[in-house]
Amino acid sequence: MFSGLAAFPLTPLKNDEVDEHAFIGLLKRLVEAKVNAIGVLGSTGNYAYLSREERKRVAEIAVQHANTTPVMVGISALNLRDVLVNAQDAQAAGASAVLLAPMSYQPLTENEVFKLYEAVTATLSVPLCVYDNPGTTHFTFSDELHGRIAQLPQVRSIKIPGVPKDPQAAVERVDRLRALIPDHVSIGVSGDACAAHGLNAGCEVWYSVIGGLYPEIAQSITTAALNREPQEALRLSQQLTPMWELFARHGGSLRVVATAAEIQGLADSPCLPRPLSALAGKEKEALAVLLDNLGLA
Amino acid sequence: MFSGLAAFPLTPLKNDEVDEHAFIGLLKRLVEAKVNAIGVLGSTGNYAYLSREERKRVAEIAVQHANTTPVMVGISALNLRDVLVNAQDAQAAGASAVLLAPMSYQPLTENEVFKLYEAVTATLSVPLCVYDNPGTTHFTFSDELHGRIAQLPQVRSIKIPGVPKDPQAAVERVDRLRALIPDHVSIGVSGDACAAHGLNAGCEVWYSVIGGLYPEIAQSITTAALNREPQEALRLSQQLTPMWELFARHGGSLRVVATAAEIQGLADSPCLPRPLSALAGKEKEALAVLLDNLGLA
C-alpha cells in the first residue's frame, strides 16, 4: 500500500459534526477508481480538529466502506498519550497502516520527535508512515532524523513535503534521503503541485490531496510517472496548474478541495471546521468555472 | 485584573495526568504573594495538551484555591466548537476572565481569526484577553486586526509577545498599538526577558511565566516599572539574564520553569506532557546552581 496513489479524502463536516453521508460518498469514489490506498484523517481529513470519538468513527467508516482498498489512518495529536489512544482505535477499526506527524504547539526538539516515534512504534501491530509536513506541524525533519526513525519497527514509508521542481535537484533530494533509510521504507511525495516531479525523481507513492476528490486525474499522473513516461506525467500535472496556483494562494490545498466538494454537491457548505473558511463569492464562482474547464466537474 | 502582575503557573503532570496536588501548591505561592491575577491554562499551563475534562477541572481548582485573586482561564483550541465549550466551562467554574489565542493547525487568515473572536465574544459574560503568541500559534496579528478585535464586546486586554529592547522602539511599538485600540483595553507584555522593557514602554500588565513560579521577583520588576523607576526595573530584570538565556536556548520558557519546579520539589519529574521533555542531566544540574545563585531556590 506504500506505492502508487494514496488518496486523502476530506472529512466533511455539517453543523460542526462529521457528515458521515458525505464522507461515505467521497470514499466510494476512491474505491471505484481503485486507488492503491485511502488515507483518512490526514491534514485534509481535518484530524487536528476532531475529537477522539469522531476520529474513531471516521476510521471505522473508512475501513467499512473501503472494501479491499487498504486504509491508512492518521493518529497524530499534540500529546503522546492521545497518539497512543488514537493508534489503538485505528488498529481496532481495522486500519492497514497509521500515519503520524510530529504535531506541535511548543516547538519540538529532534530528540523529542525521535522519542515520540519510538514510543508509538513500540506499541503498533500495523505499519506506520512518517508524516513530514512542516507547513502544519512547524517541525522540520533533518534527513539524519528520518534515517534514525526509519530504523524503528513498523516504519514503512515517509511522506515528504515536496521536492524541488528542477529534475536534477529532485533526484538528488530523493537519493540523499534514500541513502539514509532501509530498502523496506518507501518515499512518498506530497504537495500535489510537485507530485509529478517527485514521482519522476524516484518517489514510489503520491500521498495526494487532489486524488482524494478526483482520483482519476491523480492516477493518470501516477501511472505515467511510474511507467517511466516522465514527460507525460509532467504534461498532465501542468494541465492542473491553475489548481496548484489556487492551492498556493489559499494557504494550502484544504480550503480549495473543500470548496470543490461543496460545488460538486459532494459536501454541504460550510464543510470545514470553524474558524476555517472555504472559498466564497467570486472566488468560489471562479473555482466552479475552473473545474468545468478542467473537465473535473 | 488587567494591570500589574498576572502570573501563569505550570499545570504539572504526573503519570500523564494533571498533578492536582502539585498544581494547588503552585497556586498557593501566587495567592500568598498577592499577585494581581492568576492565569491558568496559558501556554505554560499546557492547555494545548489537556482534554476538555482536565481543563474544566484545572479551572475549578484554580478558582477554588485563588481566594480573592482573579483567575483568567485559557480557552484556546483549534476548533471554534471546542473554544465555545471551554468558554462555557471556564465561566461555570467561576473564571474572572478568559484568554484566547488563535491556535492553528492549518494556517489561519486574518478574516478567520476575526470571526473566531467575534463568535466567542458574542457568547461571553466575562472579559477576554487576546493572546498574541506567534511562536506557538504561528499566526501573526497585524495591528489593524488587533484594532478591530479590540472593539468587540468583552475584550479588555491584549497580551503581546514582546517589545524591542531599545527603549524608544519599545515606546513606538506600544504607542502604535495603543492608537488603534479603545482606552478600556490594556496592553500586556509577555516574553519574560523583555517584560521590564515593555512595562517601561507603557504596557500596563506583565503576563508572566517566571511570575508563575517565582512571583516575588516578578512583582519587584513590575512594581519598579509601574512606579516609574525604569532603571530599577531593568536592573532587576538584568539580574535574571542567565534565566532569559536559558529560555531562549530551550525553545521558550516552559521546559526551564518545569525543570525548576521539579528541582524545587514543587512538581514530580517528569511533569511535562510527552513528547515534551524537561531539562535533564548536566543541564538540570546547571539550572539548580543558577537558582541557588539567584536566590530563588
From TrEMBL, chains A, B:
<dbReference type="InterPro" id="IPR013785">
    <property type="entry name" value="Aldolase_TIM"/>
</dbReference>
<feature type="binding site">
    <location>
        <position position="44"/>
    </location>
    <ligand>
        <name>pyruvate</name>
    </ligand>
</feature>
<feature type="active site" description="Proton donor/acceptor">
    <location>
        <position position="131"/>
    </location>
</feature>
<feature type="active site" description="Schiff-base intermediate with substrate">
    <location>
        <position position="165"/>
    </location>
</feature>
<dbReference type="GO" id="GO:0008840">
    <property type="term" value="F:4-hydroxy-tetrahydrodipicolinate synthase activity"/>
</dbReference>
<keyword id="KW-0456">Lyase</keyword>
<dbReference type="Pfam" id="PF00701">
    <property type="entry name" value="DHDPS"/>
</dbReference>
<protein>
    <submittedName>
        <fullName>Dihydrodipicolinate synthase family protein</fullName>
    </submittedName>
</protein>
<comment type="similarity">
    <text>Belongs to the DapA family.</text>
</comment>
<dbReference type="InterPro" id="IPR002220">
    <property type="entry name" value="DapA-like"/>
</dbReference>
<dbReference type="GO" id="GO:0005829">
    <property type="term" value="C:cytosol"/>
</dbReference>
